[in-house]
Amino acid sequence: MTRHLLSIDDLDAADIAEIFDTAAEMHDVQRRAVKKLPALRGRTVINLFFEDSTRTRSSFEIAGKWLSADVINLSAKGSSASKGESLRDTVLTVTAMGVDGLVVRHGASGAAHQISQWVDVPVVNAGDGMHEHPTQALLDAYTLTRRLGSLEGKHVAIVGDLTHSRVFRSNIKCLLALGASVTAVAPPTLMPAGAGEWAKSAGFATSYELDPVLPDADAVMMLRVQRERMSGGYFPTAREYTVGYGLTRDRLGLLGADTPILHPGPMNRGLEISADAADSVDRSVVLDQVSAGVAVRMSVLYHLLAGEETR
Amino acid sequence: MTDPTGTAPGTVLIKGASLLGEATADVLVAEGRIQEVGTTPGATSAADRTIDADGLVLLPGLVDLHTHLREPGREDAETVLTGSRAAAVGGFTAVLAMANTSPVTDTAEAAERVLDLGRAAGLVDVQPVGAVTKALAGAELAELGLMARSRARVRVFSDDGRCVHDARVMRRALEYVKTFGGVISQHSQDPALAGPTACCHEGELSGRLGLPGWPGVAEEVIVARDVMLARHTGSRVHVAHVSTAGSVEMIRWAKAQGIDVTAEVTPHHLLLTTDLLASENGGYDPTYKVNPPLRPVEDVEALRAALADGTIDAVATDHAPHARHDKEHAFVDAAFGMLGLETALPLVATVMVGSGLMDWAGVARVMSADPARIAGLSEHGRPLAVGEPANLTLVDPAATVTIDREDSVSLSRNNPWHGRALTGAVRATLLRGRPTVLEGALQ
Questions:
Q1: Do B25 and B17 form a contact (C-beta atoms < 8 A)?
Q2: How many beta-carbon contacts under 8 Å exist across A and B?
Q3: Do B24 and B376 touch, CB atoms closer than 8 A?
Q4: Average model confidence (pLDDT) across chain A
Q5: CA dihedral for B393, B399, B403, B407, sign (positive or negative)
Q6: Terminal CA-to-CA distance of chain B, rounded, Å?
Q7: Are residues A129 and B202, on separate chains, in Cβ contact within 8 Å?
Q8: pLDDT band at A230, cuts 50/70/90?
Q9: Considering only CA atoms, which of A125, A218, A140, A196 is closest in space to residue A173?
Q10: Which of B397, B426, B335, B403 has its CA nearest to residue B90?
C-alpha cells in the first residue's frame, strides 16, 4: 500500500485484494450490536470537504468512528478561498492542528494530489473534481465481487455522463485491474475528450449505443446525469436522454435476471434509471453499495492510518 | 535612475564580437549610436569602456511584444522596475507592457503612467499596450485614439488575457486603429468553446485527468475570423501566443492571400508539451498552467517550423509573473502564466539555433527586428550598422546554464525552467549605448 490513496493508480491488484479482505472483516462489524474497533484509537482524522457531499462525508465519518478515530468534519467550502487564502495555506493550517490523516473532497481535479505534496500525513481522496473517487470504485468493485465472485473476465457496462464523472475514471481503472472488461457508454457529447485513444491504450471499449451492450453485460453501472448538463447543450431534453441511455423498464429485459445494477447515487429516477431498475430486488445493489462503502472506507483508513503495532 | 530616453555618456568598445553569429568585428558605440564597425576602429584607444566579446554573438537589442509587468495593481507579483530588471537581464531593450493591470490601461493617462514608470526604472523602453475595450469587458472600445495621441504613442492594443470575442467589436477596433497605424493583438480564445474553467489542452490527457479542456479549435476559429476581418477592413491584426498547428495553417494561408497578419509564439510553446500535466511527471503542477495551454508535440513541431519559415513573425515571452500564493491552488483554480523574460533567449537558442532550424540572423529577426516593426518601435530592431541606435545584446552561444528559479530578478518564482540546462546566455545588454547588464549582471 502506498502512503496516500489519491487514485486507483496507487494500488495494484494485490493491494485491492488486501483492502477487500479487510473490508470483509469490517463488514461483519456492521452487524454487531457494538460497532466499534479500537484500531485508530487516539488518531484524529479530518474530513476536509471543499465541496458538499453528505453521503460520502457521512460514510467516511462512520468508518472513522467505528475504528475509534476522532473524526472532525470541516467544511472548507468558500471559507478560505473567499478570504483570499491559498489552498496550500488552508491545508497547512488544518494539519498543523495535529491531525493524523486527511480525507479530502474538492471540486477541482488533482486537488488531493497537490495537497498530498504539501502535508506529511496520509491523504485519502474522497473525490476530486472530474478526476477520481477511488473509494467509490473500491466499494463498487467490492460489491460486485461479493455478488459475482471474481471479476476476472466479467463484462461491466458503465453508462452515463462519463465526461464529468470521477466515479467513471476510478472505476475504469479498478475494474480493469481486477480483470474485468468494460464498455463505456455515453452520447458523444458526454464521452471524455480523446476517449477513443484512451480506451485503446487502457484496454476498454466505448459505445454510443446502450442496447447492443446490455445483453452481454455481467453488471451495469449507471451514473448520475446532472440536470444542468441539459442547459449546457450536452443533450436536448431529459426525455431524449432517457430514450437513448436510461435504464428503462423495457431495457431491463435485455439484462440477465440477476445481473447487478449499480448506481453511486443520488439517483435521478426516471432520467438515467427507472424505478423498476432502482428497486429491482434481484438486481439492484444500490443499498449494498452504501453499506459496502463504510466497510471499504474502514479498510482504507485502517491500512493507511493504523500503526504497525495495531495491525 | 537614468532616463532611458537619454544616451550614455562616454564610449563603449565591443571588441571582437561575432555580428549575428557571422563575421567578427569591433563595434564602437558613442552618444547612443553605433559609431564604427570594423576590424580596426580608429577610436579604439579612446573608448571609456571595453567589453571583451571574444566568442560572443552581437544581436540588436531584443524586443518583447508581450510582457505582463503587473503594475499598477499587483506590485507583489512584479513592478515595472523589477520587470525591467528581468527584461534587461534577458537581453531586452524594449518591452510592451500588457494592459490587463488594475486599473486597466485603457486611457491615455494610464498609458502615460506606465511609460513614466518605465522611464523611471531606466533599464528598458517600456511601451504600454492599450486595451481594446474599456476594462477589457469586450463591449465598448477604449479610448484608442487618445492613447495613440498621448505621450505614450500607443500603437499596439490588446485585451490580452481575454479575447475580443464579439466580431462586431473586433471589426470596429480594426477599422478604428487604421487612423494611426495601430494593430490589434488578439488573445484568440473563443470563450464559448474553451469554457470558463478551461485550463488544459483538450485531448486524451484532459479526458483522463478530468481537467476542463481548452480545445485547439477555440483558438483556430478566432484566428480564422480575425484574418477575414482584417481582410475586410484592410487593417492589421496580430495573433498573440499562437499555440496550434491549425492556427499556423490559417496564418500561412492569410499571408499568402496578402492579408496583413502577423503572429507571435512564446518560448514555452516552442518547447513544453501538455503531457507535463500527467501525474507520472509530477502531476497537476500549476507552474505549467498557461493560457493558451501547452499543446501536444505535433503542435510544438508545427510552431517551430512556422517560426523558422517566417509564418510566425516573432517570439514573445508572455512573461506572466505571479505571487506564490496565486499558484498554490488546485490546478483549475491557480493563476495562468509563467515567467519568460530572463530565459527567452537561451530557450530560442536551444530550441531553434541548437537544432539547426535557425541561425543567429534568424534570432535577430524574430526577437528584435520583427517585434520592433510590429510594435512600431523605430529605434529598436535595427541593423548592426553605423549610425543605428546602440540597443544591443551580447550572447554567449556556448554557455550552458542550469536555471535556478531563485536566481531570478523578477519578484515572482513561477519559472517552468527550474532545473533545466539551457544553452546560450546573455552576457551584456546596452540601451542607447549604456550597459544595463554586464557579465550577466545588472548595472
A1: yes
A2: 92
A3: no
A4: 94
A5: negative
A6: 11
A7: no
A8: confident
A9: A140
A10: B426
What is the C-alpha to C-alpha distance for residues B151 and B145, in angstroms, rounded to an integer?
12
- Nearest Cα to Cα of residue B68 among B90, B45, B101, B39: B101
User: Mean pLDDT across the stretch B76-88?
Assistant: 98
Scan for cell 500535466, then name that residue: B277
**Best residue in B197, B201, B204, B214 to probe A by mutation, most A CBs within 10 Å?**
B204
**DSSP code, position B280:** G
**DSSP assigned state of B433:** T
Q: Of the residues B318, B326, B370, B396, which is catalytic?
A: B318
Q: Is the peptide bond before A38 cis (omega within 30 degrees of 0)?
A: no
Q: Which amino acid, one-letter code, is at A133?
A: H
Task: Determine contact, residues B132/B142, Cβ cutoff 8 Å.
Answer: yes
List the grid coordinates of B385. 550598422
Closest among B437, B392, B443, B430 to B8, alpha carbons compared: B430
Chain A residues in contact with B279 (beta carbon < 8 A): 7, 9, 113
> B407: distance to nearest CA of chain A, Å?
23
C-alpha cell at B251: 496564418
Query: Are B329 and A86 in contact (CB < 8 Å)?
Result: yes
**CA separation for the pair B303, B245 (Å, rounded):** 7
Please report the DSSP string for A215-270 in residue order: GG-SEEEE----THHHHTTSSS-HHHHHHHH-B-HHHHTTS-TT--EE--S---BT
Edge-first strand listing for the sheet containing B183-186:
B156-157, B183-186, B237-239, B261-265, B314-315
Residues of A whose CB is below 8 A from B207: 163, 192-195, 198
Residues in B touching A7 (Cβ below 8 Å): 279
CB contact under 8 A, A108 and B202: no
pLDDT tens string A199-225 = 999 999 999 999 999 999 999 999 999
> Closest to B331 (Cβ–Cβ): which among A109, A192, A198?
A109
* B154 within 8 A of B209, measured Cβ to Cβ: no
* Mode of pairing for the β-strands spanning A155-159 and A219-222: parallel
Query: Looking at CA atoms only, how far is residue B313 from chain A in angstroms?
Result: 32
> Which residue of chain A has the CA closest to B204?
A194
Instruction: Calculate the dihedral angle through the C-alpha atoms of B304, B308, B312, B315, rounding to the nearest 10 degrees.
Output: 70
Q: State the pTM of this model.
A: 0.94
B68 pLDDT band (50/70/90 cuts)? Answer: very high
DSSP H helices, B26-177, are 80-89, 108-121, 144-149, 167-177
Residue B99 in grid coordinates: 494592459
Tell me: pLDDT of B265 over 80: yes
Instruction: Kindly list the strands in the beta sheet with B62-67, ordered across the sheet, starting from the edge strand earlier in the chain.
Output: B62-67, B92-97, B125-128
Residue B318 a catalytic site member:
yes
DSSP codes of every residue in B207-275: HHHTPPEE-HHHHHHHHHHHHHHHHHHT--EEE-S---HHHHHHHHHHHHTT--EEEEE-HHHHH--GG
What is the residue whose three cell numbers read 481503472? A173
> Do A109 and B325 lie within an 8 Å CB cutoff?
no
Among B288, B329, B333, most A C-beta atoms within 10 A, so best to mutate, is B329
Q: Which three cell numbers stand for residue A203?
A: 484496454
* Cis status of the peptide bond prior to B293, with omega within 30 of 0: no
The Cα-based distances of B214 to A249, A256, A304, B250, B274 in angstroms read 39, 42, 36, 19, 11
